[in-house]
């Protein structure tokens, strides 16, 4: 390969003429380019960049941009350029320095001959652009950031693209006919439910703002929605995005703030949605299994607010009403993304409500399932394996090639290896179930967790904890990590989950459970929760924690009988020095 070069100059007709005179590849060769303004940037690819620049200069959307960069390489072909274009768009979005003005419909992830070698060159191109000021952070910093992981410019997997296509086809049919609709998208941890939800928000915004008289250049099947008829259906169409978890919602608000066509105010809590003065044409609900029922709120004032919203929407306060009912009352169309096995709180909507929701979607043939594992390198079988292990009917122990799965008898050793992994690749964190009091919330000098001489504190912030300063020295509680990715997760299974060896059963220890409200009864509704009820939620909590790590998961178990019960299922014991070696990748 001969190497690349990057030409830089003003975005002006005179510069285009000068470049064209110097190198014929500006008229007839596949290239990638970037056009930047004060706080916006557009990335494209073309076989005739001189003509494309003249078109951009004539367009109202891009004529205000000031600088131009063109990446030239004598070995580039169309496939390479499409890949580099997507690579730069995704990293610029994750960096956050510029607002990326591209549509997300053109982002592709297609294999081609020599791709692995070209992607090494992409990293070199990134570094040169970074030295030139186009990026403010390093490549690992960007790729570990939630702005990158939750970017609306992520390339969809094949099954995600099929689901999005089916959703849009049905949604536009329903809008055109005036028929209310309800869609459910199910997926286990790591299948990209949030990615699909954010992608849909950006895609619908782009379709609404598009000029159907201008052809969209994209090989994606989703480009068919940019033709005449579809943008017109979305004029005046009000869309909202509901996210129950505060930490995840704040991160998505940051993403929306940096994305043209979206706004931070679009991402709401269920209470904000319920109190909104406006009605929505479409509500997209992420993590719908974390919507709440009327009892057991996380804060006292929310009890009254729940009742007030019920009265406002339905004329009375029926204790059986849930936030699922609010969503239906506030919108004509709904898209729910959910995994009922990730319910972790007695205040979450009950399983019967989720089952009824799925039954209604089945009746209209609007239930879809995501299957491709995007997070965990161990593959699609790993999530089911973990859930099976955390049951009274475990599967046969197995290994997962290429995935760093280790079991520890020494918490200090696990903690040290997590610190080492964080130095190597970043985003390695300790996480745990809520099995210790949160004393440091009131007294910053005390420690919350003490195990075998190791003293640690819970997460110092509830918002974007995984990226906060000092988080590598803390332990993240379940509420800070659900919906997020880690490279390595060091999971502490606390004494809230125990094993009765005589009966051969997992059991819940209420004495070691300190989530302030998660196990509370609902006396005003006459509902009490048994230890067996809470056991299912605790098993869900640890299944969530054990499926956060993309490259590896390390496990320490507090209860000795449970430690021996789980030991065969999570790799080699840390007593084996070879097990501490960094996995090849």
From TrEMBL:
Listed InterPro entries: GIY-YIG_endonuc, P-loop_NTPase, SLFN_3-like_DNA/RNA_helicase
PROSITE patterns reported in the protein's UniProt record: GIY_YIG (PS50164)
Organism the protein comes from: Nocardioides glacieisoli
Protein name per its UniProtKB record: DUF2075 domain-containing protein
CDD domains tied to this protein: GIY-YIG_COG3410 (cd10439)
GIY-YIG domain segment(s): 28-100
